[in-house]
Design a protein that fits this description.
The protein has 224 residues and is α+β, with helices and mostly antiparallel strands. Helices cover 28% and strands 27% of the residues. It has a single domain, classed as Alpha-Beta Plaits.
């Protein structure tokens, strides 16, 4: 199964609440017109996250399909054209980032009702091969981070090899997605010995030369 992650910024000058209402309401109905989707989830940044200014992204859309061929079949369709027309009304389309990924479940816990979803946009360590980065992140770092007790569920989304073909570099090298019961639980995670081990391990595979972007969100399941 393939998961397409689209990182989204709202149209300049549009209020966050208006953006979220349109995205979750009218736009979700338009997207449902795409055939052969398995799942569709929107994750909206918390309004409180804007207290200190704008965020790296206003949210992400996740769409699961059986294969890349399903998405190729959408090209030129009226369903896709309708989506693109509606995006013009509320999304800053030039800044959109689409990444095709495979999802790796590191901690397979249930998502509690009302859970908070933290999304970190992971940058690869400079000079590290993509295969080595993905293997280390999944097999070595993943179990360390999964040891943080208050994390309810932990998923890594790794870009497909084609994203790097011909020397290309995708907008991000992956998404680390974790779910927590509450904001307080997220804060408490920093008290865990596993949290310290997690942070100490990051320089082994992550570009720690700059701040790692993240957003805290609430997810809305459109198609499950």
């Amino acid at each position: 199964m393939i998961k397409a992650i689209t990182c989204i910024k709202r149209k300049p000058g549009m209020g966050v609440e208006d953006f979220q209402a349109h995205w979750r309401g009218h736009h979700a109905e338009v997207v449902k017109g795409l055939p052969n989707m398995r799942r569709y989830i929107q994750s909206h940044a918390l309004l409180g996250g804007y207290r200190k200014g704008d965020l790296p992204w206003d949210g992400i859309a996740e769409i699961w399909v059986d294969s890349v061929d399903v998405m190729r079949a959408w090209a030129g369709s009226e369903a896709l054209a309708a989506i693109e027309r509606d995006e013009e009304s509320f999304i800053d389309r030039p800044s959109m980032a689409l990444i095709l990924t495979r999802e790796h479940v590191i901690k397979d816990g249930p998502v509690p009702p009302g859970a908070f979803k933290n999304i970190e946009f992971v940058p690869r360590k400079p000079g590290m091969a993509v295969d080595a980065f993905q293997q280390y992140w999944r097999a070595v770092h993943g179990p360390i981070a999964a040891g943080i007790e208050v994390i309810r569920r932990y998923v890594q989304s790794h870009p497909l090899p084609g994203a790097y073909r011909g020397g290309r570099q995708p907008p991000i090298d992956g998404c680390a997605i974790t779910w927590f019961d509450s904001i307080d639980a997220m804060r408490q995670s920093a008290q865990s010995p596993a949290y310290e081990k997690t942070r100490l391990d990051e320089p082994n595979f992550i570009d720690t030369g700059s701040e790692i972007p993240f957003i805290i969100t609430k997810e809305h399941v459109i198609i499950d």
